[in-house]
Amino acid sequence: MPSHIGIVGCSAEGAALCYKTICTRGPEIYGPHAHPEVSMHTPSLADYVTCCEAGDWRGVGEIMLASASKLAKLGADFLICPDNTIHRALPYIEAQSPLPWLHIAEVAAAEAAGRGFKRLGLLGTRWLVESEVYPEKLAARGLEYQCPDSAEREELNRIIMEELVYGVFKPEAVATHQRIIESLKNQGCDAVVLGCTEIPLIMNDANSPLPTLDSTRLLARAALRRAGS
Question: Taking phi first (over 0 means left), then psi (-120 to 50 degrees means alpha), and beta for anything else, what does residue 200 get?
Protein backbone atom coordinates (compact mmCIF):
# COMPACT_ATOMS: atom_id res chain seq x y z
CA MET A 1 0.00 0.00 0.00
CA PRO A 2 1.33 3.47 -0.81
CA SER A 3 1.98 5.88 2.02
CA HIS A 4 -0.68 8.32 3.19
CA ILE A 5 0.14 11.88 2.07
CA GLY A 6 -0.63 14.76 4.43
CA ILE A 7 -1.05 18.21 2.88
CA VAL A 8 -0.46 21.23 5.10
CA GLY A 9 -2.53 23.78 3.22
CA CYS A 10 -2.08 27.54 3.26
CA SER A 11 -3.78 29.32 0.33
CA ALA A 12 -6.71 27.63 -1.35
CA GLU A 13 -5.62 27.90 -4.99
CA GLY A 14 -2.15 26.44 -4.42
CA ALA A 15 -3.40 23.67 -2.14
CA ALA A 16 -6.17 22.74 -4.56
CA LEU A 17 -3.77 22.54 -7.51
CA CYS A 18 -1.41 20.31 -5.54
CA TYR A 19 -4.23 18.03 -4.37
CA LYS A 20 -5.70 17.77 -7.86
CA THR A 21 -2.30 16.95 -9.35
CA ILE A 22 -1.77 14.12 -6.86
CA CYS A 23 -5.16 12.63 -7.67
CA THR A 24 -5.02 13.04 -11.45
CA ARG A 25 -1.39 11.98 -11.91
CA GLY A 26 -1.62 9.06 -9.50
CA PRO A 27 -2.89 6.66 -12.17
CA GLU A 28 0.41 7.03 -14.06
CA ILE A 29 2.10 5.22 -11.16
CA TYR A 30 -0.65 3.25 -9.44
CA GLY A 31 -3.02 2.28 -12.24
CA PRO A 32 -6.47 3.41 -13.43
CA HIS A 33 -8.25 5.75 -10.98
CA ALA A 34 -5.68 5.03 -8.28
CA HIS A 35 -3.75 7.40 -6.06
CA PRO A 36 -2.44 7.31 -2.48
CA GLU A 37 -4.66 8.25 0.43
CA VAL A 38 -4.55 12.02 0.90
CA SER A 39 -5.59 14.19 3.83
CA MET A 40 -5.38 17.97 3.99
CA HIS A 41 -5.72 20.49 6.79
CA THR A 42 -6.02 24.20 6.03
CA PRO A 43 -6.31 26.88 8.72
CA SER A 44 -7.53 30.37 7.85
CA LEU A 45 -5.15 32.08 5.42
CA ALA A 46 -5.57 35.24 7.51
CA ASP A 47 -3.74 33.55 10.39
CA TYR A 48 -0.72 32.96 8.18
CA VAL A 49 -0.80 36.41 6.60
CA THR A 50 -0.95 38.14 9.99
CA CYS A 51 2.21 36.34 11.07
CA CYS A 52 4.00 36.92 7.75
CA GLU A 53 3.28 40.64 7.81
CA ALA A 54 4.60 40.85 11.37
CA GLY A 55 7.73 38.87 10.50
CA ASP A 56 6.65 36.28 13.06
CA TRP A 57 8.07 33.14 11.46
CA ARG A 58 7.94 31.18 14.68
CA GLY A 59 4.22 31.96 14.72
CA VAL A 60 3.92 30.70 11.15
CA GLY A 61 5.71 27.55 12.25
CA GLU A 62 3.32 26.99 15.12
CA ILE A 63 0.37 27.10 12.70
CA MET A 64 2.13 24.58 10.45
CA LEU A 65 2.89 22.37 13.44
CA ALA A 66 -0.78 22.40 14.48
CA SER A 67 -1.75 21.17 11.01
CA ALA A 68 1.00 18.54 11.14
CA SER A 69 -0.33 17.19 14.43
CA LYS A 70 -3.87 16.93 13.11
CA LEU A 71 -2.70 15.16 9.97
CA ALA A 72 -0.63 12.72 12.00
CA LYS A 73 -3.75 11.80 13.97
CA LEU A 74 -5.52 11.15 10.67
CA GLY A 75 -2.85 8.61 9.76
CA ALA A 76 -0.63 10.55 7.33
CA ASP A 77 2.86 9.11 6.88
CA PHE A 78 4.64 12.24 5.66
CA LEU A 79 3.84 15.88 4.94
CA ILE A 80 4.00 18.33 2.06
CA CYS A 81 3.17 22.02 2.05
CA PRO A 82 2.06 23.54 -1.28
CA ASP A 83 3.14 27.02 -0.23
CA ASN A 84 6.70 28.16 -0.81
CA THR A 85 6.61 31.18 1.50
CA ILE A 86 5.75 29.41 4.73
CA HIS A 87 8.62 26.98 4.23
CA ARG A 88 10.57 29.89 5.71
CA ALA A 89 9.20 28.78 9.09
CA LEU A 90 9.95 25.07 8.69
CA PRO A 91 13.37 25.21 10.42
CA TYR A 92 11.67 26.46 13.58
CA ILE A 93 9.40 23.44 13.93
CA GLU A 94 10.77 20.58 11.84
CA ALA A 95 12.48 18.92 14.81
CA GLN A 96 9.19 18.96 16.74
CA SER A 97 7.10 17.68 13.85
CA PRO A 98 5.36 14.34 14.36
CA LEU A 99 5.99 13.50 10.70
CA PRO A 100 8.76 14.09 8.14
CA TRP A 101 8.38 16.81 5.49
CA LEU A 102 9.13 16.81 1.76
CA HIS A 103 10.67 20.25 1.08
CA ILE A 104 9.29 22.11 -1.95
CA ALA A 105 12.54 23.97 -2.70
CA GLU A 106 14.57 20.77 -2.55
CA VAL A 107 12.19 19.20 -5.05
CA ALA A 108 12.50 22.18 -7.42
CA ALA A 109 16.29 22.29 -7.04
CA ALA A 110 16.56 18.59 -7.82
CA GLU A 111 14.47 19.05 -10.96
CA ALA A 112 16.59 22.01 -12.08
CA ALA A 113 19.83 20.10 -11.58
CA GLY A 114 18.42 17.05 -13.34
CA ARG A 115 17.47 19.13 -16.35
CA GLY A 116 20.89 20.75 -16.54
CA PHE A 117 19.92 24.31 -15.65
CA LYS A 118 22.64 26.48 -14.13
CA ARG A 119 21.14 29.84 -13.15
CA LEU A 120 17.53 30.21 -12.05
CA GLY A 121 15.24 33.19 -11.80
CA LEU A 122 13.18 33.10 -8.62
CA LEU A 123 9.61 34.39 -8.47
CA GLY A 124 7.33 34.48 -5.44
CA THR A 125 6.10 36.66 -2.62
CA ARG A 126 8.57 39.18 -1.24
CA TRP A 127 8.73 37.07 1.94
CA LEU A 128 9.90 34.10 -0.12
CA VAL A 129 12.27 35.90 -2.49
CA GLU A 130 14.02 37.70 0.38
CA SER A 131 14.48 34.49 2.39
CA GLU A 132 16.94 31.58 2.40
CA VAL A 133 14.29 29.01 1.46
CA TYR A 134 15.60 28.59 -2.09
CA PRO A 135 19.21 29.86 -1.88
CA GLU A 136 20.18 27.11 0.56
CA LYS A 137 18.66 24.32 -1.52
CA LEU A 138 20.01 25.71 -4.80
CA ALA A 139 23.52 26.19 -3.42
CA ALA A 140 23.56 22.59 -2.22
CA ARG A 141 23.26 21.53 -5.86
CA GLY A 142 25.67 24.10 -7.23
CA LEU A 143 22.95 26.25 -8.77
CA GLU A 144 23.03 30.04 -9.05
CA TYR A 145 19.95 32.25 -8.85
CA GLN A 146 18.73 35.76 -9.56
CA CYS A 147 15.82 37.59 -7.92
CA PRO A 148 13.66 40.38 -9.35
CA ASP A 149 14.55 43.90 -8.22
CA SER A 150 12.74 45.52 -5.28
CA ALA A 151 10.03 47.20 -7.36
CA GLU A 152 9.35 43.99 -9.26
CA ARG A 153 9.16 42.06 -5.98
CA GLU A 154 6.53 44.42 -4.63
CA GLU A 155 4.42 44.14 -7.79
CA LEU A 156 4.65 40.35 -7.81
CA ASN A 157 3.69 40.30 -4.14
CA ARG A 158 0.67 42.51 -4.85
CA ILE A 159 -0.49 40.28 -7.70
CA ILE A 160 -0.11 37.14 -5.60
CA MET A 161 -1.75 38.44 -2.43
CA GLU A 162 -4.47 40.61 -3.97
CA GLU A 163 -5.34 38.55 -7.06
CA LEU A 164 -4.00 35.01 -7.39
CA VAL A 165 -4.87 33.75 -3.91
CA TYR A 166 -8.45 34.86 -4.60
CA GLY A 167 -8.58 33.04 -7.94
CA VAL A 168 -8.38 36.30 -9.92
CA PHE A 169 -6.31 35.83 -13.08
CA LYS A 170 -5.79 38.95 -15.20
CA PRO A 171 -4.01 39.40 -18.55
CA GLU A 172 -2.09 42.26 -16.94
CA ALA A 173 -0.68 39.86 -14.36
CA VAL A 174 0.53 37.54 -17.11
CA ALA A 175 2.17 40.45 -18.90
CA THR A 176 3.92 41.55 -15.71
CA HIS A 177 5.30 38.08 -15.13
CA GLN A 178 6.45 37.85 -18.74
CA ARG A 179 8.27 41.19 -18.47
CA ILE A 180 10.02 40.20 -15.25
CA ILE A 181 10.99 36.77 -16.59
CA GLU A 182 12.38 38.41 -19.75
CA SER A 183 14.51 40.64 -17.53
CA LEU A 184 15.80 37.59 -15.64
CA LYS A 185 16.60 35.95 -18.96
CA ASN A 186 18.62 39.01 -19.95
CA GLN A 187 20.54 38.66 -16.68
CA GLY A 188 21.67 35.17 -17.64
CA CYS A 189 18.98 32.93 -16.18
CA ASP A 190 18.23 29.76 -18.15
CA ALA A 191 15.02 28.80 -16.28
CA VAL A 192 12.61 30.32 -13.78
CA VAL A 193 11.23 28.90 -10.53
CA LEU A 194 7.53 29.59 -10.14
CA GLY A 195 8.09 29.92 -6.41
CA CYS A 196 4.52 30.74 -5.51
CA THR A 197 2.10 27.87 -5.82
CA GLU A 198 -0.48 30.07 -7.57
CA ILE A 199 1.82 31.37 -10.32
CA PRO A 200 1.47 28.11 -12.35
CA LEU A 201 -2.21 28.98 -12.73
CA ILE A 202 -1.21 31.82 -15.07
CA MET A 203 2.33 30.98 -16.24
CA ASN A 204 3.77 27.91 -17.96
CA ASP A 205 6.28 26.92 -20.63
CA ALA A 206 3.90 28.07 -23.36
CA ASN A 207 3.77 31.72 -22.30
CA SER A 208 7.03 32.18 -20.38
CA PRO A 209 10.24 33.59 -21.94
CA LEU A 210 12.15 30.92 -19.96
CA PRO A 211 11.50 27.25 -19.16
CA THR A 212 9.47 27.04 -15.96
CA LEU A 213 9.92 24.99 -12.82
CA ASP A 214 6.36 24.58 -11.55
CA SER A 215 6.92 24.13 -7.82
CA THR A 216 3.32 23.08 -7.15
CA ARG A 217 3.13 20.20 -9.59
CA LEU A 218 6.74 19.17 -8.97
CA LEU A 219 5.95 18.81 -5.27
CA ALA A 220 2.82 16.79 -6.00
CA ARG A 221 4.68 14.42 -8.30
CA ALA A 222 7.52 14.03 -5.81
CA ALA A 223 4.93 13.14 -3.15
CA LEU A 224 3.48 10.48 -5.43
CA ARG A 225 6.93 8.97 -5.93
CA ARG A 226 7.70 9.03 -2.23
CA ALA A 227 4.35 7.49 -1.34
CA GLY A 228 5.11 4.56 -3.60
CA SER A 229 8.71 4.03 -2.59
Answer: alpha
Based on its alpha-carbon atoms, the radius of gyration of the chain, rounded to whole angstroms, reads 17
- The CA distances from residue 159 to 125, 155, 164, 178, in Å, are 9, 6, 6, 13
DSSP three-state, residue 10: coil
Q: Which domains does the chain have, with CATH numbers?
A: 5-103+218-228 (3.40.50.1860), 105-214 (3.40.50.1860)
DSSP letter, residue 4:
P
Q: How far apart are CA 229 and CA 226, in angstroms?
A: 5
The predicted-structure confidence for 172-184, as pLDDT tens digits, reads as follows: 999 999 999 999 9
pTM of the model: 0.96
Please state, in angstroms and rounded to a whole number, the distance separating the CA atoms of residues 215 and 221. 10
